[in-house]
Each structure stands twice: as C-alpha cells, then as structure tokens.
Amino acid sequence: MTTIPHGYIRAVLGPREEVLDGILRRSLLDDRLPTIQVDDNAGRVLQLLTLLRRPRQVLEIGTLFAYSTIHLARGLPEGGRVTTLEIDPRAAEAARRNLRTAGVEDRVDIVVGDARAYLETVPPGSVGLIFIDADKKSYPDYLRLCYPLLEPGGVLIADDAFAQGDFTAERTEGSDEDREAKAIHRYNRAVGRSTRLFSAFVGTQSGLLVSVKE
Ligand code: SAM
C-alpha cells in the first residue's frame, strides 16, 4: 500500500539473506502459498520491537509459511518462545519446514486451528508481545480477546492497518467486499480511542498499528 524504497533499504541495511530468499522461493513458487507475508522491512520492524520488549512469550495470529514468525523468533531473549496460530494445515506444514531451515524451530510452537479457540485458553496477563495478522474481519474480536492477555507494558501489533488504502470503507454501508476494511477501521478506531493503549502507525508496505498497554 505504502510505496517503500526497497532498493534503498537493501543498499543501506544489506540484501535479503540467502536463507530467507530460499524460504520465500520454496513457499511461493514450489508450495504456491499466497504472497501475503510481511515485507522485509516490516519483518525487521517486528524483530526490532521484539528485541526492544524482550518478551518471554510472543503470540502470533496468522502464521502462513512463518516469514514473520522467523523475525519474531530471532528477536526473542534467551528462553523466550513464540506461539503462532494457523488455521490452514498445509501452510502450517510449510511453516514447520521453514522454521527448521531458519534454525529457530526450538523457540516456536505452531498451533493448528482457529485462533479464537486457542486465545480463550491463554492465561490473562501472560503475553509480552502479540502480532495480529490473520483474517481481517476478525480484527475487532482479536482485539477483545488479546487485550486481557497482554502483560502491563506488553506490545500489540496489527498488520494491514492501512486497510489496503480503502479509507472510505468507514463511511460506506457494508457490502461484502468492503467488510475487511471496515473491520480493520473498527480495530484502529478502538485502539485509537483507548486510554489504556499508546499507539502509533508504522509506515510499512501494508501498515502496522503498534500499541503498548500502559
Ligand atoms: N504473518 C504471516 C507473515 O507475515 O509471514 C502472514 C499471515 S497471512 C496474512 C494470514 C494467515 O492467517 C493465513 O495463513 C491464514 O490461513 C491464517 N488464518 C486465517 N484465519 C485464521 C484463523 N481464524 N485462525 C488462525 N489462522 C487464520
């Protein structure tokens, strides 16, 4: 959505590592999974936020082939873990392989199934960082379910915060095709109104909305 100067970023921060390049090729070209993973700089932002927060427990909603998961896992402190939730068993299988290839499989648990069912089992206040990147229509539900799980000072991150540039969806009456954008705006507005979350948008390709629980 945002135009990102990928060439410049690579020139400054270095090219994509070979291991990540191989994971992308295998997952997109061989497995034919959809190209809806975070962009490289957004991956770096996830790793950076994890490095800053040093969470013992990270929760990710929407694994796909674990591109974002690898970045989260790389940012963990000693003994930290990522639990990542994925509804599609074929994607989860590719994720398992990719986590092995990246050498982070010992820090990640993949839970296959509907994220909502799992979220209801997580003890309140037990998670240091949550990354929401699954079905967009459920974003308001994910906010309701995830907020209590965060420890004080915990970080909440939502991808696709710019709703693919569909900023008019807030004002139009809901036809099926604009419901995803509407749900994202509902999430953004709720986060923006909250007096218990401090938030900022980060201008990655699809936009991250990053919040800290005060
Ligand atoms: N976070 C990944 C990355 O950046 O590499 C991309 C995730 S992709 C945008 C969204 C994923 O969420 C898909 O793989 C989809 O199968 C999964 N998903 C959709 N609905 C879900 C649900 N209710 N529970 C768990 N996963 C779900």
From TrEMBL:
Report the EC number(s), separated by commas if there are several. Answer: 2.1.1.-
Q: Name one GO biological process term.
A: methylation
PROSITE patterns xrefs: SAM_OMT_I
Q: Which UniProt keywords apply?
A: Methyltransferase, S-adenosyl-L-methionine, Transferase
Organism listed in the record: Streptomyces cyanogenus
Which SUPFAM superfamilies does the entry link to?
S-adenosyl-L-methionine-dependent methyltransferases (SSF53335)
- This one is known as O-methyltransferase
GO molecular function, one example? methyltransferase activity
